[in-house]
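WARN retry 2 of 3 for item q-0093 after timeout on previous attempt; input resubmitted unchanged.
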Amino acid sequence: MSAYVAAAASSGGNQQSPAALAPQPLANNGVLPESTGVGIGSVSKWDEPYFDDTTPHNVTALVGKSAYLSCRVKNLGNKTVSWIRHRDIHILTVGSYTYTSDQRFQATHHKNTDDWTLQIKWAQKRDAGIYECQISTQPVRSYFVTLSVVVPTATIIGGPDLHVDKGSTINLTCAVKYSPEPPAYIFWYHHDEVISYDSSRGGVSVITEKGDVTTSHLLIQNADLDDSGKYSCSPSNADVASVRVHVLNVRAVLSGEHPEAMQTGTAPFSRGNPPWRLLMAGFASVLVSWVLLVRWQIMNGRFSPSSSSTVDSPVWIGPSTRSSNRLSSHRSSSATAARHRKLRNTAIDNTCPIECRCRRR
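OK item q-0093 returned
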């Protein structure tokens, strides 16, 4: 504690010297010396200063807002309360006096509750850490408070791009995390314009659920191509989160009924729009794969024309069918060879003289 007092004494001025605020050792078995001017006899352990453990040990503050760290001291008597930052072992306050050049720190004593509160204005992330509330007893008594400085973040689930079919419902969910308290409000924007829930379009509603993680659901029924574009969620205590929605008129394009859906502009099927290119590329890939598969099956004898159909169409031949066909083909080949031999012998008989035939026999 002497090092702390020496550091605080260097601030000088007309303030009370920290040396006078340093803890005074008890003598004569706990009897205060008469020089203190306190008209009290012996001091029991129940009369010594102590901390009220009901005050929180963990405090969370928003970046840019004020943070309040408190310790409650009972039976303080003539002792003093100091706040010390553990990050650099720096004395911030002694009693109601501030011993730092950073004017964001200020100590306040609430006499009716015995609270000693350290206020940190415009809290920054670097202010996070352990702070010690110390009583100038021998030995010193300490109460530690951990400060967390958080930056609330907003995210739209499923981003950065969402694709929905025309006529369906657009459901956007904005989640606000790392906020010690729910945001006061959450605004939704479409193309940087605030969404009006009572507009002539109709079918637009918002459902907000507050808690440790606050969620806001934007519902747009019967989605149309004009509903495509950028949507933003703007909470009162967090940065803006955005997502881009693409309303796809898939059925109209595939059927060819509405070629105007492929025009350039904000339509989702413009040439520069990745979903359209992916859709066509996927369709072409499936078509090419099917053609190659049919060709491979034909080359390997897995397709044969159907005799019962007037139109040449591929007919699947299974493994058992192929085995039967091979046996039938073998029998047919044997019968054909026998017929060829018989015809040849007949031709020879007709052209050969009688003696040749007799000799051959």
